[in-house]
Amino acid sequence: MHFSRRFGWATGLLFFAVLSCRLYAQDSIEEIGAQAEQLEREGQPRRAVELYRHILLVDPTSLAALNHLGALYVGQGQFSKGIVYYRKALSLKPKDFSSNLNLGIAYIKTQHYKLAAPPLKRAVQSDPTSLQAHSLLAISLIGQEDYSRAVPELELIENFNPRDVGNLYLLSRCYLQTKQFEKAFVSFKHLEAAGPSSPWLHMLKGEAYDGLADYEKSIDEFKAAVQQQPDDPTARFSLGFMYWKVQRFADAEGELKRALELDPNFREAKFYLADAYITDLKPRDAVPLLEALVKEDPSYVRARLDLGKAFATTNRYEDAARELEAAISLDPDRADAHYQLARVYRHLNQLVKSQHELEITKRLHVRKLEQEESVMSAIGTRRDATQQVDLSPK
User: Fold this and answer.
1) What is the pLDDT of residue 28?
2) Which CATH number is 334's domain given?
């Protein structure tokens, strides 16, 4: 009796599946595809998925169904599933424009910029007239910090659409990163012509003047950005960083504090505020900020170095030695860390160790430790280039 019930249930399912296929078979694949697209437009992705899957049962080589399924899963944040369908499409037709473009978009959305570049290159080769493909390829290169190779892609787009504000913004950033300041200022003029001056245009100009070592003009531009957008933490940080750079520490502290109020997780703001406190002879104010940074990231060399300095300034020499030793273990070539540790060892009456650190310091001083700090490098990855372009699948 039990077996017969199970058999009847299975038979019923099979009958339903066959009946369903027969009902679908009455419509052509094109008609089913049109129904699925209509369901997508109506916001019914699950039902659309069912229809596209049915199309693949009938025709496993349907590129349209594979791409639609990929787009539906990517749109729901199920990127790995979407990528599987795009890859299936490309296994059938490796040079297909839409499949390559969509796969590149999926990788960009997940910030896998290196993986995004090859399919986007193929998309550009398949359709050299597609400005979106060129733009996305530039985005993948910017994501890899390959700014020089992104420039030609963005310049091509500018030739066809000189008033594309998003493209001009990215092109200006690439010019700054590659120190092509003259071209950057031309882009700024084009941005001004495309619309009224905006906070981020002032930010770009501020970065350019910083790169040219015209710090007063840089400060003026960041001030303008803050006036237009007073609650933007990046604008506040940039102004505070420039004040720090010209050693206007009281002004720097005010702006960097405000940046942290607006974004308590702004790591660079914590570091430069702490560094300003140390240089402004307020080491005790710096310690909590630096301890928080080291707790968040034990490999943060500069935070450990500054924490060692703050401890040394407040006569906590054992604690200072611990942090400086940790900094050196992470980056043995920092002459300033060896010099600070030599001073701390002297206070601890460890004279042999102190002399050893001084000798290392002398050897390392012939090397240039790092390039001059800039607001661009300090801001780091807080600007997401993917927000500047259309990332909708095709």
Assistant:
1) 81
2) 1.25.40.10
Q: Is 341 a member of any domain? A: yes
Alpha-carbon torsion (284, 288, 293, 298), positive or negative: positive
Tokens of 173: 């950033």
Residue 116, domain member (yes or no) = no
d(CA 105, CA 102): 5
Cβ atoms 209, 217 nearer than 8 A: yes
Residue 374 CB neighbours (<10 A): 17
Residue 11, CB half-sphere, CA atoms under 13 Å: how many? Answer: 6
Q: Are 109 and 391 in contact (CB under 8 A)?
A: yes
What span, in angstroms and rounded, lies between the C-alpha atoms of 114 and 133? 15
Q: What's the angle, vertex CA 84, arms to CA 79 and CA 87, rounded to 5?
A: 120
Asked if residue 339 belongs to a domain, the reply is yes
**Are 362 and 69 in contact, with CB atoms under 8 Å apart?**
no
* DSSP code string of 243-272: HHHTT-HHHHHHHHHHHHHH-TT-HHHHHH
The total domain count for the chain is 1
Q: How far apart are CA 319 and CA 303, in angstroms?
A: 14
Task: Report which residue type is found at 125.
Answer: Q
Determine the pLDDT at residue 351: 96
pLDDT digits (tens, 9 = 90+) for 258-290: 999 999 999 999 999 999 999 999 999 999 999
Distance (Å, whole) CA 386 – CA 379: 17
Q: Which of 320, 40, 309 is nearest to 32 (CA)?
A: 40
CA angle 91, 152, 71 (to 5 degrees): 35
* 52: number of Cβ within 10 Å: 25
pLDDT at 377: 77
Residues of the chain falling short of pLDDT 50:
1-26, 369-370, 384-386, 388
Residue numbers of the domain that contains 339: 293-368
Query: In angstroms, rounded to a whole number, what is the distance separating the alpha carbons of residues 30 and 257?
Result: 60
DSSP letter for each residue of 50-83: HHHHHHHHH-TT-HHHHHHHHHHHHHTT-HHHHH
Q: Residue 3 phi/psi, 5° resolution?
A: -60, -40
The reply to whether 311 falls in a domain is: yes
Half-sphere exposure at residue 303, Cβ-oriented, CA atoms within 13 angstroms = 20
d(Cα 338, Cα 332) in Å, to the nearest integer? 8
